[in-house]
TrEMBL record:
This is DNA mismatch repair protein MutL. One of its GO terms (molecular function) is endonuclease activity. It comes from the Bacteria. Belongs to the DNA mismatch repair MutL/HexB family. The keyword Nuclease applies. Keywords: DNA damage, DNA repair, Endonuclease, Hydrolase, Nuclease. This protein is involved in the repair of mismatches in DNA. It is required for dam-dependent methyl-directed DNA mismatch repair. May act as a 'molecular matchmaker', a protein that promotes the formation of a stable complex between two or more DNA-binding proteins in an ATP-dependent manner without itself being part of a final effector complex. Residues 211-329 form the DNA mismatch repair protein S5 domain. The chain holds residues 1 to 341 of 629 of the full protein.
Length: 341
């Protein structure tokens, strides 16, 4: 039988659309990716504007570095990134992004308009791109930083669009991503508007202030500082006092080098440290920041980067448990001192 060749390289638009399936599950994924880009661009202030829970509009405006005209175009190419150059860089990642896939993915499945300007340039660049196809590129007057509008998410992927949940569920996911990033960066100002209503306006400040601004004034009295330093990692943050534990989970956060992560094993370290002080079935509040040399972690195991591996997980467990135990203990002590005052 005569052989015939049937393999072809996929066109970019299809390859990007497939990749987008991994990066962009829902509007919240877009919010996360764009917020992370703004953080990586060293923004001091970030605005989020949403319509219909992000279905019709997700706009993120930052006052960060902005991009040159060439970079503005390049940023929508797949595997195009300014954050890593060689494979060794994978072991010293300090930025939120590094895969160079987010903008390419988003532009494959939405109508995107980006205005971006570097502070030293008089004019910025406007790019309109949809379905991976650049429709417009021109010089425009705009503010320094980057203003990205993502309209009609999944306009060309009806199956995905139909799988989206109600606006309130999609908003819940967006707020989860927004709050995680806002907690990780109290030094950055954030605002969030949904359908012209202001949902958050967070001014830059200290971590306690950020926690209170997100969760409410009543948290102020309920937090205990937590800190432990070793040569391997340093842990710091706040735990909620044991009697403040809630029936619902959700206000429990780990950040590794300022990146929000999910880690059941480490979560167990925290809950074990609370053992005997919180009632069965209650969930203590915690916001813990772990600083570690990036050479000791692998964040490359999942496209959304919420899972990471430590080279010595047992040590991380032990140090976190010690830090939280100490904080719970100090709190008990200081309560009795307060009584004597
Ligand atoms: P990654 O963040 O993994 O590098 P992205 O697709 O998210 O990939 O972005 C591609 C590149 O575009 C980034 O490496 C960065 O150089 C540039 N970029 C994206 N968003 C911004 C922004 N808000 N401000 C400045 N540069 C940006
Ligand atoms: Mg990115």
């Amino acid at each position: 039988m005569a052989s015939s060749d049937i393999i072809q390289l996929l066109p970019d638009s299809i390859a990007n659309q497939i990749a987008a399936g991994e990066v962009v599950q829902r509007p919240a994924s877009v919010v996360k990716e764009l917020l992370e880009n703004a953080i990586d661009a060293k923004a001091g202030n970030i605005q989020v504007i949403l319509r219909e829970a992000g279905r019709t509009l997700i706009q993120i405006i930052d006052d960060g570095s902005g991009m040159s005209e060439t970079d503005a175009r390049m940023s929508f190419e797949r595997h195009a990134t300014s954050k890593i150059r060689q494979s060794e860089d994978l072991f010293r990642i300090r930025t939120m992004g590094f895969r160079g896939e987010a903008l390419a993915s988003i532009a494959a499945i939405a109508q995107v308009e980006m205005r971006t300007r570097q502070a030293d340039n008089e004019l910025g660049t406007l790019i309109k791109i949809e379905g991976s196809e650049i429709k417009t590129q021109e010089s425009v007057a705009c503010l320094p930083g980057t203003n990205l509008c993502v309209k009609n998410l999944f306009y060309n992927v009806p199956a995905r669009r139909n799988f989206l949940k109600s606006n309130s569920v999609e908003m819940r996911h967006i707020l989860d991503e927004f709050q995680r990033i806002a907690l990780a960066h109290p030094e950055v100002g954030f605002s969030l508007h949904h359908n012209d209503t202001e949902v958050f306006n967070l001014i830059p400040g200290k971590l306690v202030r950020r926690i209170i601004d997100i969760y409410g004034r009543n948290y102020r009295e309920q937090l205990a500082f937590c800190q432990e330093d070793t040569s391997y990692i340093s842990v710091r943050g706040y735990i909620g006092k044991p009697e403040f534990a809630k029936k619902t989970r959700g206000e429990q956060f780990f950040f590794v080098n300022d990146r929000y992560i999910k880690h059941n094993y480490l979560h167990h370290a925290v809950t074990s440290a609370f053992d005997g002080t919180v009632p069965e079935g209650s969930h203590p509040f915690y916001v813990l920041f772990i600083e570690i040399d990036p050479a000791h972690i692998d964040i490359n195991i999942h496209p959304t980067k919420t899972e990471i591996k430590f080279d010595d997980e047992r040590s991380v467990y032990a140090i976190i448990m010690a830090a939280v135990k100490k904080a719970v203990g100090v709190y008990n002590l200081s309560q009795s001192i307060d009584f004597e005052d």
